[in-house]
Amino acid sequence: MPPARKRPRVYDPAKTRAAVLAQFGQVREAVRTLTEAQLAAETRLGAWNVRELAAHLTMAVDTVARNLARPEPPKAELALLDWPFATAGRAGDIADATRRLAADHPDLDALYAAAGQRLTDALAAAPDTRLLDTRTGAMSLGDYLVTRTVELVVHTDDLNAAVPGLDVPLDRQALAACTRLLADALAAKAPGGSTEVRVPPFAVVQCVAGPRHTRGTPPNVVETDPLTWLRLATGRLGWRDALANAKVSASGERADLDALLPLMS
Q1: Which residues, 6+ apart, have CB-to-CB distance to 190 below 8 Å?
Q2: Burial letters for 47-63: b for 16+ Cβ neighbours within 10 Å, e otherwise?
Q3: What are the backbone angles phi and psi of residue 223, rounded to the nearest 5°?
Q4: pLDDT tens, 27-75?
Q5: What is the average pLDDT value for the chain, to the nearest integer?
Q6: Could you report the per-residue pLDDT of 107-137, keeping only the tens digit for each?
Q7: How far apart are CA 118 and CA 111, in angstroms?
Q8: Are the CB atoms for 105 and 205 separated by under 8 Å?
Q9: Residue in 177, 160, 179, 156 with CA at minimum distance from that of residue 25
Q10: Residue 45: CB partners within 8 Å, gap ≥ 6?
Q11: Is the peptide bond before 201 cis (omega within 30 degrees of 0)?
């Protein structure tokens, strides 16, 4: 018997808005402290240096105001759980736009101030049900803001990795939304009930085809922390490396997620 179709997770729109604004504010405060030497440093993203990564973080929120300024599409085309799988094809265009933005705006604090103001103004005037014509497909503002938590949290982690000691804080609600969306994306990619994936304290999902667990301790369990999960889901960390370094525990014959990761890259 196939597993029952699960209802999509519901996110609190007010909390998501607050999380996006809070995380962007945390990044802005950190970026204004960076020296020219730090801005020129390499990142784990390959082609981008820290300056370009910092500029890209403004793009992650500026898309909200830009999409709200466009005509509203007639209907939604993209479900929230489809978004993680719809982004890979735009990687080249995003990289080019990021480099241009960083080159055209050497004053990063001014760039952040303008992007933050546009975001605040745009959100004040738009309901969460308003549809946005995004590059990956039409979706509601409420759903799109959840995707912004992924962009902000994952790239904040990239920034922290590139600049030792920077330690930009992660807003708890932003981290929670990001973790839950990518955990649910795994369950959508590998539907089933044989394996339980735990990312405490934010997410537990059932996935992978096979005998469905109904009571007691699941025979197949994967457990890790939120940041390790995000790094696995986005290709920052490989499954084998995570196991070897005890960043993830996996027990049971269906607990090997290597073939399912990353979800985004």
Answers
A1: 207, 208, 209, 260
A2: ebbbbbbbbbbbbbbbb
A3: -140, 140
A4: 999 999 999 999 999 999 988 999 999 999 999 999 999 999 999 999 9
A5: 94
A6: 999 999 999 999 999 999 999 999 999 999 9
A7: 11
A8: no
A9: 156
A10: 53, 158
A11: yes
